[in-house]
């Protein structure tokens, strides 16, 4: 089994995710091979909260150009984690 810090890559901070925080939902970029139960255990272990639901989605990379050269941004997996009412993740507070 992977360590929790290998599963959670980074939090996602955007206008939409800040609005979701009001509903006690937090968004993370996670490892591509992580499943919902691993994500749940990682969030509970790192932040000491109770997770009630995990939704995951694959975000496909976009095609990009730099002059005549073409490339693609990498694909990534995103997880939206719903916490028990009353629980908060302190990293996101004050946004």
UniProtKB/TrEMBL annotation:
Keyword annotations of the record: Ribonucleoprotein, Ribosomal protein, RNA-binding, rRNA-binding
InterPro entries linked: Nucleotide-bd_a/b_plait_sf (IPR012677), Ribosomal_uL23-like (IPR013025), Ribosomal_uL23/eL15/eS24_sf (IPR012678), Ribosomal_uL23_CS (IPR001014)
One Pfam family in the UniProt entry: Ribosomal_L23
Self-association state and partner proteins as the record states: Part of the 50S ribosomal subunit. Contacts protein L29, and trigger factor when it is bound to the ribosome.
GO MF, one annotated term: structural constituent of ribosome
SUPFAM superfamilies tied to this protein: Ribosomal proteins S24e, L23 and L15e
The protein's name in its UniProt record: Large ribosomal subunit protein uL23
Function: One of the early assembly proteins it binds 23S rRNA. One of the proteins that surrounds the polypeptide exit tunnel on the outside of the ribosome. Forms the main docking site for trigger factor binding to the ribosome.
């Amino acid at each position: 089994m992977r360590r929790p810090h290998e599963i959670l890559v980074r939090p996602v901070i955007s206008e939409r995710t800040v609005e979701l925080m009001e509903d006690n939902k937090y968004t993370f970029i996670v490892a591509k091979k992580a499943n919902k139960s691993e994500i749940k255990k990682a969030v509970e272990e790192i932040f000491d909260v109770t997770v009630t639901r995990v939704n995951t989605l694959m975000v496909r990379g976009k095609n990009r150009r730099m002059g005549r050269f073409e490339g693609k941004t990498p694909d990534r997996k995103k997880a939206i984690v719903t916490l028990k009412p009353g629980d908060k993740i302190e990293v996101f507070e004050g946004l």
